Amino acid sequence: MAIKNKVQLITYPDSMGGNLKVLYELLQKHFTDVFPGGIHILPPFPSSGDRGFAPLTYLEIEPDFGTWEDIRAIGEQFNVLVDLMVNHISRQSLYFQDFLEKGRASEYADLFITLDKIWENGEPVGADIEKMFLRRSVPYSSFSTLGNGGEEKVWTTFGKTDPSEQIDLDIHSPLTRQLLQSFFENFKAQNVKIVRLDAVGYVIKKLGTSCFFVEPEIYEFLGWIRQMADSLDMELLPEVHAHYSTQYKLSEYGCWIYDFILPYRVLEALTGRSNTELYSYLRTRPHKQFTMLDCHDGIPVKPDLDDLIDTDKARELVDICVERGANLSLILSEEHKAADGFDVHQIRCTYYSALNENDDAYIAARAIQFFTPGIPQVYYVGLMAGRNDIEQVEKTGEGREINRHNYTVEEIGRGLEQDVVKRLMKLIRFRNTYSAFDGAFQVLDAAPDEIRLLWEQDGKYCRLFISLQTYQTVIEYVDEEGRPATYQV
């Protein structure tokens, strides 16, 4: 299948109306021509934590969200994209529970990375761990096993609890590959077209390395999984937060990649009223990317922009966002912080609030995103021009809840009446239907406080102009009759 060069929506299964059935009704009622590119449904599977990212299985849909029938129905009209956490699975899964009950005698034991697979005697070595890019203070958890009446330490890259809810899978095990294949085959049967390989950068554990995007081993795994996806006529989207050079290697390898640099560069241009860094980036970036401004996590900073940003300037931008209500995700490993101690992993906020809830600035940001080559994705909170949900952060203690508000049908109805949302929807429709976006892209020379971008094909063109002083956004284009036209966005 070919990925459509149209705008996609990102949403949780319960964030627009409460379940998948209502989501489908809303899509049909309001958004058929807005998101023909597809719908990224964040994990709809039974899960024991991390809002779906600790799945028990991929063979079932969480009953509170709906059924596979709902997914198939959405897939009849839209390309459905779902996540597969190739790095881990829930400790509540039947696979790991069987391991806890039977120990090494479990038929699923080889799915997991017991520490004797890493260290010869099964005892972790601090010097090795210091080199790793950690997502928790130690990359393993201890469990009591009934099967041998003892304790097992297994690898757990992620998780805020101890022991973790997210148990790493041993991707070298034939059993794991057999399990992953069964998940893919089920996705195919359920009308899923695109699979995001969540946390794929962490799948290789190798002593003496950061255990993150370990080369060349990562390519063997990607090659295997891509061959399987190709055989099922499915597309892959690896999700890797890493130094930009890693993303570029993935692109050279032929993968679709995420543009995790663009959200920061756009925010920087609009708050600093200068095109310098954004222009430099737009002129050199690979084109085969999925673009986004906002998502369920945060605006990426480190390591995605390492060696691209001045940390003093980055601190200024971070401080502006914090003043506007943002909270921060920080780097844990001392070795992976900047030399001056800068340690911001992600800025957690809505993009609308990051731009001080300025409608014109927000529309300018979306226009830059839609004119940047790639497949644009719009997060559901961004679609509604949502504000920071400080109350939910305070209620849950989870900083990412700032940008994860669940909208009722009534709230969506009111949201669609906002002027900024009407402007955004019109802009999305233009991006979906104007043929020049399938042509050639150019970054046009401009004054430092302007943005000028161009697409052209077969006599059609659309030229974007943004004043970074006023945030006025104008598109000049050739209409259906071949006449020059102006669209005040």
UniProtKB/TrEMBL annotation:
Gene3D superfamilies: Glycosidases, Oligo-1,6-glucosidase, Domain 2
Name of the protein: Sucrose phosphorylase
Similarity section: Belongs to the glycosyl hydrolase 13 family. Sucrose phosphorylase subfamily.
Pfam family, one: Alpha-amylase
Organism ancestry: Bacteria, Bacillati, Bacillota, Bacilli, Bacillales
Annotated GO MF terms: 1,4-alpha-oligoglucan phosphorylase activity
Keywords, in A-Z order: Glycosyltransferase, Transferase
Species: Paenibacillus jilunlii
GO BP terms, alphabetized: carbohydrate metabolic process
